[in-house]
């Protein structure tokens, strides 16, 4: 939805000096998107969205999420930590077999630039040993990024993947199933990258919300695709 709001943002920036920080953030985003090193969402008129799940896999919640995705014939991208992938390789392999995308979310959920190269390499090795494939998309923990983080990721062949500014329902904070569903569905737009979590805490609300989100998407003609597919459509 960022793409449709860009003109409005600039008009607001013209009239309200208190929006200096927003202007700087918007300018930074434009810089990164032009380079192709960072993506927040896709730019497409097709009714497609990308569901993403961070922090997994979890032996408790990831299988439930995979079952729901399978029921709806939906695809997702899982940004996994190397530590969890190492503990639960069968879940990584299931994600791979069911044609979901597996992205890199560091080994220990550590976004510090001085550790990032090793964190990415360790996780990529584990994913490759399980699936025979190497991840090409990286989501920095907590969405933290700067020039150094982006440069390190780019040097290792990654696109940094964040999420649509209005598609973070903060499911990690357990706001309630209805709150998660309403946040996603009320802000839905073609090209959205939706942020959810399948590990890192109690994700029962996310599991319960997911079928309702997918029902809404189906009823409104949206198709779920992987992040890499979204990038291809944008390019």
Question: Can you describe this structure?
Answer:
InterPro entries: Glyco_hydro/deAcase_b/a-brl, NODB_dom, Polysacc_deacetylase_ArnD. Keywords: Hydrolase, Metal-binding, Signal. This is Polysaccharide deacetylase family sporulation protein PdaB. With 235 residues, the chain is of the alpha/beta class. The protein has two domains: 1-35, no CATH class; 39-234, Glycoside hydrolase/deacetylase (TIM Barrel), CATH 3.20.20. It is built from ten helices and eight strands. The strands form two sheets. Strands 2, 3, 4, 7 and 8 form a five-stranded parallel beta sheet that branches. Strands 1-6-5 form a three-stranded parallel beta sheet. α3 runs parallel beside α9 (204-219), α6 (113-131) packs parallel to α7 and α8 packs parallel to α9 (204-219). The longest helix has 19 residues, at 113-131. The protein is globular and about 45 Å long.
Write a concise synopsis of the structure shown.
The protein is α/β, with parallel strands linked by helices.
Percent helix, as a range, is 40-55%
Distance between the termini: 18 Å
Radius of gyration: 17 Å
| Topology-level CATH name of the largest domain | TIM Barrel
* Overall spatial form: globular
What is the β-strand count?
8
Tally of contiguous helical segments: 10
- CATH domain class name of the largest domain: Alpha Beta
Order of helices and strands: HHEEHEHHEHEHEHEHEH
What CATH architecture of the largest domain would you give? Alpha-Beta Barrel
Low-confidence stretches: 4-23
Strand content: 5-15%
Mean pLDDT comes to: 91
Q: Describe the sheet with the most strands.
A: 5 strands, parallel
Q: For the record, what is the CATH homologous superfamily label of the largest domain? A: Glycoside hydrolase/deacetylase
Number of structural units classed as domains: 2
By helix and strand content, what is the structural category?
Answer: alpha/beta
Signal peptide: 1-24
Domain NodB homology: 47-225
Keywords: Hydrolase, Metal-binding, Signal
Organism: Virgibacillus chiguensis
């Amino acid at each position: 939805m960022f793409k449709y709001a860009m003109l409005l943002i600039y008009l607001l920036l013209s009239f309200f000096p208190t929006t200096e920080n927003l202007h700087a953030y918007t300018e930074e985003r434009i810089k990164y998107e032009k380079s192709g090193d960072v993506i927040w969402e896709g730019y497409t008129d097709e009714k497609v969205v990308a569901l993403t799940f961070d922090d997994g896999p979890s032996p408790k919640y990831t299988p439930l999420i995979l079952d729901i995705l399978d029921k709806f014939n939906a695809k997702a991208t899982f940004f996994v930590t190397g530590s969890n992938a190492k503990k639960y390789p069968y879940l990584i392999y299931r994600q791979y077999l069911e044609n979901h995308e597996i992205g890199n979310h560091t080994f220990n959920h550590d976004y510090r630039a001085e550790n990032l190269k090793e964190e990415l390499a360790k996780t990529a090795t584990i994913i490759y040993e399980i699936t025979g494939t190497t991840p090409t998309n990286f989501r920095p923990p907590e969405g933290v990024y700067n020039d150094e983080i982006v440069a390190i990721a780019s040097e290792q062949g990654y696109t940094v993947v964040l999420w649509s500014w209005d598609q973070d329902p903060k499911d990690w904070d357990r706001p309630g199933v209805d709150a998660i569903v309403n946040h996603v569905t009320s802000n839905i737009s073609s090209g959205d990258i939706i942020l959810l979590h399948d590990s890192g805490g109690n994700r029962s609300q996310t599991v319960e919300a997911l079928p309702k989100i997918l029902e809404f998407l189906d009823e409104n003609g949206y198709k779920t695709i992987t992040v890499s597919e979204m990038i291809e459509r944008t390019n």
